[in-house]
Amino acid sequence: MTKDLTTGSPMRLILGFALPTLFGMLFQQLYNMVDAMIVGKLLGASALAAVGSTGSINFFVIGFCMGVCNGFAIPVAQRMGANEPSKMRRYVANAAWLSILFSAVLTVATGLLCRQILTVMLTPEDIFDNAYIYIFVIFMGIPATFLYNLLAGIIRSLGDSRTPVYFLALSSCLNIALDFTLILWFHAGVAGAAIATVASQAVSGVACLFYMVKKYPILRMTKEERKLDLHACGVLCTMGIPMGLQYSITAIGSIVLQSSVNALGSLYVAAVAAGSKVYQLLACPFDAMGATMATYCGQNVGACKLDRLSKGIRSCALLGLGYSLIAFCAMLRFAPQCAMLFLDPKELDIALLTQLTTQYIVLQSAFFFPLSLVNIVRFSIQGMGFSPFAILAGVLEMAARTSVGLFLVPAFGFTAACFASPSAWVCADLFLVPASMACIAKLRRLYPNHPGEEPSAAPAPVPLRAGAHR
Prior knowledge:
By secondary structure, the chain is mostly helical. It has helices at about 10-45, 45-55, 55-80, 85-120, 125-140, 140-155, 165-185, 190-215, 225, 230-265, 265-280, 285-300, 305-340, 350-365, 370-385, 390-410, 415-420, 420-445. The protein has one domain.
């Protein structure tokens, strides 16, 4: 049920691990897309805009949860690579304790503050109520988000990228059924779409938990291993919190940008919402590559096989380049048809709405290779144990999106908004690529002649020399 990523061809291992992960992420995007398609076609562009207007704040909070869970899985992968199952199980147990604490605090805080956040974001009045209903339900489902993402991250850290796919397939089918049931039969509106998303993820998480208990003997813990361990919690937080903050800091720029798009009107909000769904589906391979590289680098650092790190990053970057070219060519031809998956042909301004959505999709796909590098290199750095670097990369992304949102969108309108994310990806790459080289060099200095030696804690990030990012 587990897989060793420390021996064999990096390209073959990465492909074999990434493909099941990709299918899982496609399933995840499937039920996100179904929400948008049903809302857009059955409830109209106004309801689609309401759901879309919550995208950045959704990413701010839910992205933090997912980042924390991914970070918690890195020490598990490192101990798996070092062949230390007892220490690995101790990290799994303490990750569970921390996740319970984090999910409780975040659920209460976001539930109390989401109305004020939507107000600050200048959410248009005609979509405000639906936006609040949708995001409030999503925030109440934060425990389900933690449950699934933590368990899926742990399973991937063990080298098994297939099992999470099965549970996401179950979740996707359930989500589609609940969407139709709640929206068409019970007339629950956008609340029905949100409830379907939360409920399906909760079922997936619970099913994953029961499966892990039964099928993974390596995770069966003793009473001592289940105890709260402050040292283990410290290592987990050192990995998890920076990864979560990286998502949230990046999302701050998205929130500023979303506020600027909101000021343009609900028609532009709907275009971005529809275009984002297509972009998120197309970007799934990059997410899969990132998740793969976190596990790959984590296991190889644990085994002190440092020569394999650069080889893995180069192999994955080649995969990212090939897919980026294919996706861009496809969108040059089929972007309008993709846009219509989420738009109602009966809308009054359907021609303009289709044109705006197409423009957004094509411009995003033109910069897919920089996006692929962001995911591949950032997750590789995190797998090596240098999670604080994720915060610095997130700051650069935030600065780029914020600058576009504050200064360029008011001056140049919707076209400027289309270039916000590409500019963020390029800025992040200017830092991440040299940073990855510095991280590998740091590890070589730390462990030149001690294969299998365990770091006492997460390695401290190496300070970059002046000009290293140029």
